[in-house]
Structures
1.
Amino acid sequence: MDGTKQSGLVKFKDNLFTVKDSLLGSFIRSGAPTSDRSRTAIMFNNFFLHVQTVKTHINTLRPSYTLGMGLIALFLMIIAFISGIFLMVYYNPSIENAFNSVKDINFVVSGGKLMRNVHKWSGEAMIIFVLFHMTRVFYTSSYLRGREFNWLIGIVLLVLTFLLNLTGYMLPWDQLSYWALVIVANIIAAPLEMTDIMGVTKYFDIGGISKELFLGGLVPGKEALNRVYLFHIMLLPAAILIILGVHFWRIRKDGGLTRPDKFDRKDTDTTYITPPDKTGDIFPTYKTYGLMELAKGKTPAVDNDVENTVLSWPNLLIAELAVMMFTLAAVVAYSFYIDAPLKELANPAIPENPAKAPWYFLGLQELVGYSAFMGGQGIPMAALLGLALIPFLDRESEHTGIWFSNKQGLTVTIISFIVGTVGLIGTLAFTIQYGWFRNWWPNIPQIVIVMINPGTIWLGFVMIWSLATIKITGSTRMGAIALFTIFLVSYIILTYTGTVLRGPNWDFFWSQSEWPIH
Amino acid sequence: MHSRFYLSLLLISSLVLMMFIGMGVYREMTSEWKTYQTEYKNMLVRNAEDDAARKRAEKLEIGLRQNYVASLNKSDRCMSCHIGVENPYMAKADQPFTLHSGDYIENHPVDKFGCTICHYGQGRATNKKEAHGKGHTHWDYPIIPTKYIQSACAKCHDYKMLQEEGAELVVKGEKLFREKGCRGCHKLNGVGGDLGKALDGIGSKPRAYYAMKHVVGEHTAYNWIKQHFDDPRAIVPTSEMRVFMEEDESDLLTTYIFSIREEEMPSKYRFLKNIVTPPRDGESLYKMFCVACHGSGKISVYDEIFDRTIPAITNPPFLRSADNKTIKNIVMEGRGGTQMTSWKTTASGLKEEDVDKIVEYVASSRTYERPEPFNYLEFQTNIDSGMRLYNNRCSYCHGKEGKGGNRQLGINLKNSTVQQVLDPEFLALTIRDGREGTPMPSFGGDGLGLSDQNIADVVAYVKTFGKKK
């Protein structure tokens, strides 16, 4: 008995002294990443790393291929999450205190103003980079070969990004928040225009019901703020996290990032990869290799790993870390100089003029100016539907992994860009200069304007343009390029118009400095 | 390691990030209020009279000062910079360290009242620009200029006390407000005319309530109100407001305007001991509601803004033809188509007994020399002849359809006052004798040669205007 007791204590003592090693060992099971084997093991032993492959294709690591857009969007989201938790500590979601608590974050919370700026700008930058990421994915045909479903998930993520930003915009309860809330509620109520035309609003007021559901009442108030807050801090983040998990899992399942079928290594690749050391473990030094076969190619592939891949640890992870640090530094630097806007306390009696939605919806608001239903719901739905259907209508997968597919693709992109820019600016200029049907024939039925307005005409033109491209080039991919290019151009031009060129009463001005002084 | 590209990106980004975090920390450590407090502390140490005082000064903690006054819902951080506001030794110091002027602070201790309850501005802000809230700071209530500061006193104190204890500017403003006839056009607490905007809570209206386009200098509500008093049409080109100001009266009225506030102070802050009800005799009421347009009422004035003649209502010829009942009817019903609005209780909030007092005051200069009665009812009237006469003699001023207006001199004869309220006798007398002091000439007898029968016909015709659609 005595001896057993003795040895138990000794065991305990030994365990105690080796606690550092055993504890670390339980965290990092494969030991320090010093050999290819342990570098491999670390990737699939770690929960957070195992969603990525053990080996990464060199093409994926080329900055010129992905431009890091998706990664930047992810890191922006993480930054927004962390800064958001910081802000949540101080923010109070009641109409009495919301504005004051944001003021306090700005004025007395240590680092509060910077944190709020970081939160605001990382969130809004997310929109830009999610769109950039989508653009990259599109122009490299990365929505094909089993990735069709992931493209759809990507569109859901885009919508969630918009919604997260929008709900966040409403929380400070200042004039911007309040009137954006009013505008968004009115966009939600846009089917009213249709039900009014059909004369069934009395029985089937889908627009009014949606609006009431969103606001928790007829006008924005404390219920609306609570709803928006709940969405912003709980439902939408949870949704985006889960769906983002699926997005990443599908990338893995669909065979990683796309790459061209015919891949050649370049000399410059060595600036961003570490070649495998090929010593120890699976490449024991005591083994020798004999020449078995002559194969085409410049040199024997001694330094190359299987199929132009390199180990993810450290190659991929160092790249991710660098992009993360770059994103963080850029956001903090921007936030250091530019403050997130905060206007006067919300005042239902004094409308902002112009009352504007957040900038990323001003393209929609521009269209809403023509027809509430078409601009607010019809055209955006059509655009989203068009985007979603691209992988199913274009199945030419031979260009996958190549920017703009081929020379013809680049030409179509450039021509569509020019046609889109000139055409849309022309349409807007005409409408601004000469007005629309209502100005010419005041008694025209509203249904005609809903159906035929600059927005729908433009939508129709884009469809015809894409179909014409398909017919002329004989390639659905070219049609898709034409469609997507004009979509991007339209989003940018309409957003610019709504943001910069529209002033009080939604009148046209070249810049804000020309606005009449109120 | 060969991944030079990503490693350099990592290194540079990390350095940039550290630099900006460092700059952020530095910016917070050297904030405006910290600099001021350090300066203040040094001043105290330098000027200490003895060692004990110096030691106390050295112990002064540099930190954000905040007055949270729960019952006023105010968090004022003004003392983070204005740290010497309660220190008598700071009487001669420069801003922001100087002692509060006067003896107000003795009776209004900062910890019970805060600062913004009187001075406005953004109490939560911790830098000068946003705390004072001037310029483009997106703050609704910028700091109030000291010349209007007495408006804040009236939030809690009665006018008697204000008069006696040194807030006479707002008292004078209030008196001017009553005597300039502001409520002839503006409602306050539900009583007043309809031409202008109601003034309830006007002092609490945010900056965005005002159209600042033509305001000279800082775009604040204070400047808007003051400059609007000086020249209404310079600020609002379409304004019909009539003002007659002497020198400093616009400042006094501005002070009073900013004491009309939406928010009510908690009862424990209010100090209302001698509430003196302003006089409500006929003369006071006349001034309160009528004087802005009618002035003394002795002479008719052609008003360019109204584009019509404002009739003399206290001159004897008018009073001779109009008896009290007629005057009261006109006051109660108003004159449709003119700036004279109805003063019925339902329209103006004015009680009928007050209207009676006003009518009595207006009629007080009547000489009791009634005109020779016309006896309208004794005439057999002929509407066709009345129509011919009207078209020949009256329509030039009153219009073919009797609508008046449109740069025509005559009043609207279609309005309900003429049609329903005024009796034909009064109309006939007006046509026969004219209205002295107005463009309405005497048509009867020796004047423009209408016989009494003619006049009766015209009256009968005029009375038919109300029946046509």
2.
Amino acid sequence: MIRFAWRQFRLQVLVVSGLLVAVAVVLLITGPHMAHLFGELKNCKSKNDCSFLTTAIGTSNSDIDNFMTATNLVFPAIIGIFWGAPLFARELETGTYRLAWSQGVTRSKWIGCKLAVVGVASMVAAGLMGWMLTWWSSPIDTVNANRFGTQIYDTHYIVPIGYAAFAFAVGVAAGVLWRRTLPAMATTLVVFVAARITFAQKLRPDLLSPVKLVSKLSRAGGYGFEQTPNGLHFIVGAENLPNALVFNAVVKGKHGARVTSQWLQTNCPKLLIHVSPVGGRTGVGIKGNGAPKAFSECVDKIAANFHQVLTYQPASRFWPFQWIEGSIFLGAGVALCAFSYWWLRRRVA
Amino acid sequence: MSSALAAIDLGKRYGRKWALSKCTLDIPAGRVVGLVGPNGAGKTTLLHLAVGLLRPSTGSITVLDQVPACSAQQLGRIGFVAQDTPVYAGLSVAAHLQMGAALNASWDMQIAERRISDLGLDPKQHAGRLSGGQRAQLALTLAIAKRPSLLLLDEPVASLDPLARREFLAILMDVVAEHNVSVILSSHLVADLERVCDHLVVLAASRVQVNGDIDDLLSTHHRLVGPRRDLDNLPDTVHVVEASHTDRQTTVTVRSVDPILDPVWSVEPLTMEDLVLAYMGQAEQQRRDLVRLKGGT
């Protein structure tokens, strides 16, 4: 049965293998040069050389990197559409299930074998794709130091395998419910993209509760005043922690107090704080030669009375995040396959 | 004698519509059975239930004394050719035979290859490029080479031209003679069945109308023609299947084990086609009566 499952699946395997080979060729041609640059970077002596090499690694292959990232992002969808959706839909659509299910193999075994063979192949293909890109882009990834970014997190290591398993299962389920290939393919695309976007934007940031780092006011990420409907606020930009997922930085005093217009009027008299009587609109202004000095004195005062709270997911959580997200998608995929198995055995034909 | 197919109060419902209902049937093994009925009578439903593609909504069915599709071994004993003879369009003829070999423990590759070469099919040919007749032959080959005890064929010749139809049935008869298999063959073309079948099941309006060996059926069914009269004074042993009246004459199709001796009637024998049409007509009449009854209340 496994051999026959492979035989039926041969054309699709050939097409996707062709895609994998094409990607491998591009990466093998461009990879060594980048690895060479990276080797130089590790041994670079002068600061100028180092920054030149850093830029060279970051920019020389950015087109290929973007293209490969895009390929890796859509690859699970391709698996779902071309491997998952037709798996049973085509049999049901063309009526060949009547031939298949009257052979000397039970329906359970036939369904189970096809799910296992193509499902595992989906995960292997996605794993290979991700692994090739991981190998190739490791210099860029090291230089960019942004492991939670889409270019690394969504296309490397474990999560692509989970995505592929999920996309495959969505395709299979859509196929057995629609019993027609084309609508099943369209449904697969829509459901997969919606699930990925929702997860990445709504669920991923809170997979583990974020770390809050309380520190002295940092001036590295930029700072300034911001006008809000509630009055004037002093804000700092979140500094970029290498490979971490930084959400925001908030300036807070004791008991969570914020820097308010009133506080500034009292403590920074040299700054002109306007509080408009109508609607409470505020503005900040500085006049004359002493302006920059007045501003920096005021910031010093703020720094003495307030601290900053940085909310982020530390770099060390990259692997837990990969495992958790990958497992969730894989688990959803397994559940969908179980549903399709049950549905085909009990409800169809 | 063991039975090829036995059903007790078998029914299959789709939503609120019954595709087959109250079907009680016992077909002995070793027969070539014609399953006849108009389109939509439930023939395909019955065959799908028999091969385990469908599960009954009510009642039970056994095929070769086992529940359909209960095990790989049971599936291996049934050769099924579905309606429109589905095959994998993208696979070659040879790949189909490999599939049969991989999926059926009792597969006989010699039989399969000999049949393909007898038919003059190119093993490398994709099944999608075969003509309707060739496709039906391939489907039949797949069903036969697994060496089944029972062949179930769902309108295998419906889409074939007369020549291909005759050839298909001739080959089927050879197979039956050679391998000693039971056959249940559905069709709405009585002429085809007449040539090959020795047992008849008429299915109409989701019910079994008649079931029996054709020789028995033909010897116990008669057409009576006589002057117009009431049918009440026919003997109790005579069962009226269908009756029609003109102003002067009454024609009745009856089933009776005893010979009809009343000299008022001239007794004519029935052909198989007459018999089938009479039972299908009866079912249609009952359906109309039912509709009228419902309309009246």
